[in-house]
Design brief:
217 residues; Spore Coat Polysaccharide Biosynthesis Protein SpsA, Chain A
Length: 217
């Protein structure tokens, strides 16, 4: 069963300028997830899918560069367009879609999720954060009743997808255009591991986390 991981990269980020190449803990942000992927046993190939050849020299050992069309760098480009192109160019039985904006995901988390899908018990996997607090959706409580307020320790938790990774078979994407199937394994991660760097303040927090980890070494 061939398993391919890919990380879509564009260099014209709007919310955090140049974030994928910005240094975090002494190396470009994108290198964190790439090194994690190369450390996971069972992944046959790891790709960066980017339109700019200049990043080749920054890629960790074992990571392949695949050039994509600059058309996919538009602000209006949908993830679906990127995944369609990549799966058309690189054939595999299983794909791992990962994002550079999640630098703290652990190899062990990815390896466990991959094993769950490879076993056949689950048809896909994704990372999620468990939130156990009072949640609202569309103007009303989502997980509790206003006239029956539970303790936070017993309230029904909600789970939020993180952008760290999605694992899916080729058929699920090519036939149904879904990265999560009907029987997914949900890899529950904590707030640090599930961090998604979308805004400047997120990068500041990531720098604090990276610095604290460096001091503990």
């Amino acid at each position: 069963m061939k398993t391919v991981a890919f990380v879509p990269i564009r260099l014209n980020s709007q919310r955090v300028a140049g974030k994928n190449l910005r240094l975090l803990g002494g190396e470009p942000l994108m290198c964190h997830i790439l090194k994690t992927l190369t450390a996971v046993r069972g992944i046959d190939e790891v790709y960066v899918y980017c339109s700019d050849e200049s990043i080749r020299g920054l890629l960790p050992e074992g990571v392949r560069f695949l050039r994509r069309s600059e058309e996919l760098d538009r602000d209006t480009t949908l993830g679906r367009e990127i995944y369609d192109r990549f799966t058309a160019e690189v054939e595999a039985d299983l794909y791992i879609l990962a994002h550079a904006t999640s630098p703290f995901i652990r190899p062990e988390t990815l390896a466990e999720a991959l094993g769950k899908v490879q076993s056949g018990e689950y048809d896909s996997a994704f990372s999620a954060e468990r939130i156990q607090t009072f949640a609202w959706y569309e103007g009303r409580p989502l997980n509790y009743a206003l006239d029956n307020i539970p303790r936070t320790q017993t309230i029904e938790p909600v789970y939020i997808e993180t952008s760290a990774f999605f694992i899916f078979p080729r058929a699920l994407w090519c036939e149904r255009h879904r990265r999560i199937g009907d029987r997914p394994w949900m890899a529950v991660v904590d707030r640090i591991e599930g961090m998604d760097i979308d805004y400047p303040e997120d990068f500041t927090m990531a720098e604090i986390i990276a610095a604290s980890r460096s001091l503990r070494r």
